[in-house]
Amino acid sequence: MSGNETKDIHPAIDPGRRKFLGTTAMAGAALGLTACGASQSSGDKAAAGSAATAASSGHDAYEVPPGKLDSYYIISSGGHSGEVRILGCPSGRTIKRIPVFNIDPMLGWGITNESRAIIGTRPDGQLKYWTGDTHHIHGSYKDGTYDGKYFWVNDKLNARVARIRGDTFETDKITELPNVQGQHGLFSDKRDPVDAAINYTTRVFAGAEFHIPLPNDGRDEESPDKYGCLFTCLDANSMDVRWQCRIDGNMDLVATSYDGKLAASNQYNTENGIHYEDMMSAEQDACVFFHVARIEAAVKAGKFTTIGDSKVPVVDGRKEANADPKTALTCYVPVPKNPHGVNASPDGKYFVCSGKLSPTCSVIDLALVNKWFDGELAKPRDAVVAEPNVGLGPLHTAFDGRGNAYTTLFLDSKIVKWSVDGAIAQFKGDAKAKVIIDAIDVHYQPGHGFTSMGETKEPDGKFFNSGNKFSKDRFLPVGPLHVETEQLLDITGEKMKLIHDHTAYPEPHDAIIVRADIIKTRQIYDLNEFPNAVKTKEESTIERNGNKVHIRLMSQAPAYSMREFKVKKGDLVTITLTNHDKVEDLTHGFGIPKYNINFVVNPQETKSVTFVADKPGIFWCYCTHFCHALHLEMRSRLIVEA
Ligand code: CUK
Ligand code: CUA
Ligand code: CA
Questions:
Q1: Which domains does the chain have, with CATH numbers?
Q2: pTM for the predicted model, two decimal places
């Protein structure tokens, strides 16, 4: 049995608490939040005890014994670490950390010339940015499900979108978005490719959370009424920005429809507030819908402006310019209050916005939104077909494909399972409709929750992962900074079962759970993929051109192709290294003492680094990655002559 069974099944026990939260209530809730570790301790023990019971009574299905593989990949953002992680599901093992917007010496990310070109450099050669904040990661789609080709992730800090290859799980492109700050929500287009040459998702959508002056060049800083937010569409193939759409209010999360007609973003700051009190002054905010085809037609017809130095076409999606539904580019569906999260149900019918400061979830019927765009629905609000009370602080919702929704309740520290059809019936007036089906404690304060394959047309309703923002007492204490908790729930039955806790380095936000058979990774690169590869022993040379020296090196266990290379103090040195080993998993490293050079080359891969040889002496370049019985002996001398 699970811990929640001993409790009232309804997550919001005290109906008196089921009110919208005002400023004072929110301050109280914040206080309550710090105290929740103590107030929930009896519940914790029950949950912990039940987890132990579950394990001892043998849930073999969750166990991934030594030598066996997980059945899912969890591809997870890493928040202000700037990276992306891959975990196995259900084991929770961390399988890979993918540097994206951060620096990573293991891989050499931010150190090699190739990674620096992807991240972007300034005219003086410095990296343009070396930090980022990843929140939302989504994959490329075909036939409504993942095809495993690409994954896109946002950088909230520096308004960028990165693409990660599904075959190597390495970042291959990063685009900085113009005219926006706080690039938060991100979702890929789910429609089937129209262009046969680009056989995958063709668009990626991104929402901006922060209002800024447009252009943000210092002229309107004291006129917040002139600040604005833009919704951005990128070309998934070139990663160029296709267009932007200016809106009223701000944006948070992004969702896309399965037919490709609509994209949407929840808005918590329709007040255009500068301070948080202003941002929570209205009882309703909105979910703004974008009519993708009309926006692209407007761009084609030249109905756009540009902002500042940016050449990106910007269409006007503000309310005043879109009063006629039949030509409108945008539709603002009112929902309560400072909503967080918008999630698409796998049947393609609904988007669900969680209320955050309202204990409700708003179910928006996409057919009705389309009806509004056709001029056949009186008010955008009429597209809301259910608004169940689910509990306090609802943030994100996931689906099991059996008609149930699972919403994270940040303030209640629970996951609530509710019936979408039940909620719709209740909204229509059926007082007996069963809406809330189950609730379970999580530890603590869940942010995102996501289900196995839940953001595809192939949801399998097996696992729900709760990404919790506080772990408090769940792990051995390691100082003031606690690790976060990811908790895995079995959702195959009527009742949810907590089956696993695992740690997550701060701070994961969103993730997707992808069936393992969809991901097809490569073990070995192709030498010919790299135009600068050092292909033969004869090509392994030292070329000098003035004070520029190019050392072309190969690695093959247990040696580099040259035992030593001489340069002069002050030379600008480039080392290109091609790994000639063809054995799976046989990676070599390359480190140069005192020069901040540290990177790896995978089988048949080529990478390069460039540095000024400003320190004379002998520097043992050594293999940093344990590769061979003679790994320690695998080294060459860099001789910098005075
Ligand atoms: S936001 Cu993090 S818990 Cu950036 Cu998706 Cu909701
Ligand atoms: Cu090559 Cu270690
Ligand atoms: Ca608001």
A1: 527-641 (2.60.40.420)
A2: 0.91
